[in-house]
């Protein structure tokens, strides 16, 4: 935003009110209708309206800026600090006529030879299918009637093709005459030299995208920008040559502009040089008429239009080239060559800008809006000064910031009424009702997946029904699933939804990877904007059938990771849970409900990965064990849900009629989570290196291609063999890196799924832990941290996004331990490395800091569980006889485990953190909460 504003001096509205104007609709020139006149403003619209304005500056007792004592008159006739502005008068319009065709371009000059002594200029108006030449005739009024102006048609030239732009000039160096050149949409040029004499020419290169054409009078050439973004200069004599054999088709010089030209203007700045100024989408280029670049100005904004002019006479040494560029934000920037000298803010964003010498205001800025708002303004307004606030250079204090944050949270809680949210949610539920259902039957999957072709996969149908009560303009439905779950279509958009209507769409959901997802929950989001203009979002969740991802297999006898679940029913008479056949009827073919061991294997897993569920013999306890930690989460989530009586898509509720409480008597070792974080970090680092290598190889490919084109233009056939060899080798390198990058990205996706599953497993264990202390608020913070959503953006990895959250929980809130000494070396090292000018911080730094902080945080929580379990003196009370007749190994001796636990607690007194290389015995922790590995 500029400090200055362009003051309005005169303003009017053209007859056509609507978006019927562009950068070619404005033309300012002296038409020589009467002696001593100023510039006239000619405006043509796409609706056919042609208007000629001649603003006057002395009708409202306003000062004439041409006079020497203009400043004194301004002080006498206008109040101080009050900008003067002319009021539109009816006499300012000298002509207003409705033409039969749209006006594409306007030009003025000596286009006829009827009377060489007549100083009046003619108007050339370009229509889509013809070119018309008009003469402006003024008829003197009689008595009290004023003069009036007529538009007389001198001649019109029909065009064989639709027109695009118009240019004129003394082609061939003639004197006293101006010829016309019309550019068609296909890029061909049609010249009109003498009365009734015309011919058509086609330039050498293809012209699928037309651009403006201008004439250079000093060198008798035409300049235009080709569709290949190359500025080309053609000599007029070569274009006008009648014989094809004698005509030169190539331009005399060319220059790569590198972007589309929004507009192009030419000026002569000295006796021996003319310049071409090109306004691109991102740059302004100034090129001499010999093809040399004078300057390139890179724009940090999006330009809309521009106008160039020369101050002074071009034969004088003090002549300067000025550029006025309008940005999309409505700012007017004035450049002296490539140096900005002024900036001001326009009232509206124009589509065309020009400069005119009107009565009372020399060098006026004329702007035309997209809807026909014609304005004449001037520079020189006073700036809108403001005081820059003082910088807060106080040192950053974490304790003070935390206090301020707590105060703000208290203010937010005090100012927000929870009842308002409930009322708004209830209103949203009444306006739009969303029903999500899963089909009971599954069919063979027909969508592409990453599962091997020989494995039979199935898919199920997800149906979403939306009942809309009010009328809605836009209704959007979005389906989100786990990364390992595929969906045929994830988003639907409904427009102009009528009231009391029902919309429905069906999608297919199927397993997309060989591994198990972290969760089988599918979330459907419904977003819409109500009649009050408030956006509402509804959320519905549903569970996918478990048989889409798992198949029964032989239970395993040994496993590295084990968890034990205890079930306590709310009613003593229903304390019996039943067998696994009643909990998982879809995996028991014989229909037996007393199955005590069940093995489940992921679909498409041929490497022996499995999860085993064992039911205790005499008590309501279950054991889940597997050699892989990531695939336990889905089975554990399903088992907890079915034990608590939750319904899903494939169960009718027969397996459980009452709600019960599930307690998990253990938490997996932290080393498994840290190991998964380390794997994810290494794969992320490999992907980043491959992306950098791909960027280097593609840059080399573009360099070789440009070199090949240069050698091809030079027709150096011997050098082509070496370039072709380099191109082939570089192409092979690019293809190899692309294949490696595709494989690495797939590995990163699998690592994200595995890490999300482990996080979800920890979330379930901490949520249903058996020895949680009463009123433990830290569990809410911890379960909120362990979410099963691992996302890596292009700029930040998951570790970098999670690290500030873990550090905040480690230093504040209920998870903080004041007895521990905080290590600030990591902070200093991290921020010093971040400010290093060599580049971004390595992903490994974030991963190491996150692992250290997460290990400290979870270890502190486990210590609290151990303390609570010892104080209460409660154990699992589990008898090893419960599992002795099962196909799994017997439980460990409790006395031996208690002795080992005491030794481990004593060893932990010498070290704060456990080592990552934990052995397998540390994972067998399903006996007591006191056996947690720390």
How much strand content do the residues show? 25-35%
**Shape label:** elongated
What's the average pLDDT?
79
Total count of strands = 42
* Proportion of helical residues: 25-40%
> Which regions contain 5 or more consecutive residues with pLDDT less than 50?
59-83, 647-657, 834-839, 871-934
Structural class: alpha+beta
Give a written overview of the molecule.
The chain has 934 residues and is α+β, with helices and mostly antiparallel strands. It is built from 13 helices and 42 strands. It has a 6-stranded antiparallel β-sheet with strand order 37-39-40-41-38-42, with helices on one face. It has a 4-stranded antiparallel β-sheet with strand order 1-28-27-26, with no helix packed on it. Strand 40 (611-615) and strand 41 form a beta hairpin.
Describe what is shown at a glance.
This protein has 13 helices and 42 strands.
Break the fold down into its secondary structure elements and pairings:
Blueprint: E1 7-13, E2 26-29, E3 40-44, E4 49-53, H1 70-77, E5 93-98, E6 105-109, E7 122-126, E8 130-139, E9 148-158, E10 163-169, E11 179-184, E12 189-192, E13 198-201, E14 214-216, E15 221-225, E16 230-235, H2 236-240, E17 253-256, E18 261-270, E19 273-280, E20 283-288, E21 293-298, E22 303-311, E23 320-327, E24 331-336, E25 339-345, E26 350-358, E27 361-369, E28 373-378, H3 398-415, H4 418-431, E29 432-444, E30 458-468, E31 472-480, E32 485-487, E33 491-497, E34 501-511, E35 521-529, E36 535-543, E37 550-553, E38 561-569, H5 580-583, E39 597-602, E40 611-615, E41 621-626, H6 632-643, E42 660-664, H7 670-714, H8 717-767, H9 778-785, H10 798-811, H11 825-834, H12 843-872, H13 894-908
Antiparallel strand pairs: 1-28, 2-3, 3-4, 4-5, 6-7, 7-8, 8-9, 10-11, 11-12, 12-13, 14-15, 15-16, 16-17, 18-19, 19-20, 20-21, 22-23, 23-24, 24-25, 26-27, 27-28, 29-30, 30-34, 31-33, 31-35, 32-34, 35-36, 37-39, 38-41, 38-42, 39-40, 40-41
Helix pairs in contact: 6-8, 7-8, 7-12, 8-9, 10-12
